[in-house]
Amino acid sequence: MVVLEDVEPCRQAVRESQQQGGIVGLVPTMGALHEAHLLLIRTARKRCSYVAVTIFVNPTQFGPNEDFDKYPRTLETDLSACEAAGVDLVFTPSVETMYPAGSQTNIHVSGVTEGLCGAWRPGHFDGVATVVAKLFNILPADLAFFGEKDYQQMVVIRRMARDLNIPTVIVPCPTVREADGLAMSSRNAYLSAEERKQAASLSRALFAARKSIQTGEYDAAKITGAIRKEILAAGPVDIEYVDIVNADTLEVVKSVDRPVRICLAVRIGPCRLIDNVAAGAGK
Length: 283
Ligand code: PAF
Fold this sequence. Notes:
By secondary structure, this protein is an alpha/beta fold. It has 2 domains: 2-173, 3-Layer(aba) Sandwich (Rossmann fold); 186-276, Pantoate--beta-alanine Ligase, Chain: A,domain 2, CATH 3.30.1300. The protein has helices at residues 7-19, 35-47, 75-84, 95-98, 116-120, 124-138, 151-163, 193-214, 220-233, and strands spanning 2-4, 24-29, 50-55, 89-91, 143-147, 169-173, 238-246, 260-268, 271-279. The radius of gyration is 19 Å and the shape is globular. The structure holds pantoate.
């Protein structure tokens, strides 16, 4: 496994692998790797002959009052995990390498960024789209793997890749959950034992909502109302949004008459947690 901090050797490694007929897979991360990242890496390992992981805590996707400074940074452990998972290349650029002085270009994807987290984190998806486009240029992989826990992020990146004719194919991978259903996230480490218990209500409420759709409830307002009730019953938390959206366009639906995604964001203690499940049309 090679660990690279500069752009040119990354391009060269990808080019060489592709010239030899290899399929290159890319797993972009911000580090603090856990089981959900390892699933992305393992999936990439199965489908690709060369696997590159990027570890970069991207400042441009954090708002002024968000946790950029205290975001967990565990590079040594991350590199060992990558090595053990059979990764070929890890790119760990500095902020100066990714954003050299004088950078003036920003990518804005409209439409799919407007609702859900986009409404609560202004500029967040510009930061994500810009850094991911740069990573796709630095490591022009054949396939790139993203977790469905960040469903809106995956849709935004897929839209951006289509709109900018980026040939990398976006591969969504299922959410990995703790034993009690909590979606795995690097930010779960911020939760106290009591908050951790409350956090389990999020997936419980989402699974119950999916079940109610399977048994004939299609009224989105009734379904989201039941989700809010279940989460609030678990303790004093701050619900940012609970929305049922069209799975492709992310437009809010009133009735579940097509494939949808039930999405939510909730603040529990110091943590902003997001989760979602697929529902509708036989799911
Ligand atoms: O999901 C993440 O970890 C980040 O948003 C990503 C895609 C690596 C971009 O910084």
